[in-house]
Amino acid sequence: MNSSRKIELEQFCSENHFKVSDLSLLNLALTHKSFANEQSRKIDHGIHNRHNQRLEFLGDAILGAVVAEHVYQQFETEDEGDLTRKKAQLVCEASLVAVGNRIQLGSVLLLGRGELSTGGSTRDSNIADAMESVVGAIFLSDGFEAAKKLILNLWEPLLEELGGSTGSFYDYKSFLQEYLMRTIRQRPEYDVTGSTGPEHEKTYMVSLSVNERVVSEGSGKNRKAAEQDAAKNYVLEHNIPLH
Question: Is-contact 15 8, C-beta < 8 A?
């Protein structure tokens, strides 16, 4: 790993508020098989095995354990079937992609030229696999508690939504960004407009703008939840069909 890649990964960690003691493990977690295969053909040193699939296997197990413990503790009156459904909802590909897109995981993936040219940096399967791999890398680098902290922090909006009255989650923010980029080539912008309540129980208000015009508002227990609410309100108000 060269110095520029190291700086890129350090910045990625800083922007998403987590640390990895062993950056080489994080780099491996972000290495797609197509990239490793290209490097293997260049130097022929068996590097073809240096991609993220083994870390993905490990991360899947760690994520499942953390989420299982969380739903077990949070939903004391629910039976095994209900807990299983809640766990499945939090570890499914859609949830992994929602988390991965929120932290812009695709921007730091190492992909082969062919994979990159066909949209590999935004492909759901690549994002989901890499997200599990990152969890595995944190576990190997810094232990179970560090991996648990990462999961609970990054999955916070999904966990909050799961505890709501509907018990379901849809990542309206990621959906809306993809929809607007596809239809008008504009990204939505979110701004905190205020907050109410005591420090330990604040409600945040957020405005959603498109083309520098406020088109929706939302509220939530933190900024991320408020942004989700604003995106949801825009999608529902404009009757945009969900895919």
Answer: no
Catalytic positions are: 60, 132
pLDDT single digits (tens) 189-241: 999 999 998 876 788 999 999 999 999 999 987 887 889 899 989 998 998 88
Q: What is the CATH number of domain 172-237?
A: 3.30.160.20
Q: Nearest to residue 24, comparing CAs of 2, 48, 47?
A: 2
Tokens linked to 76? 């004391």
Place of tokens 């993809």: 178
Which of 162, 168, 167, 132 lies closest to 150, judged by CA?
Answer: 132
What does pTM read for this prediction? Answer: 0.66
* 172 class by beta-carbon count within 10 Å (0-12 exposed, 13-18 middle, 19+ buried): buried
Pair 114, 105: CB distance under 8 Å = no
Say which CATH architecture domain 3-162 belongs to: Orthogonal Bundle (1.10)
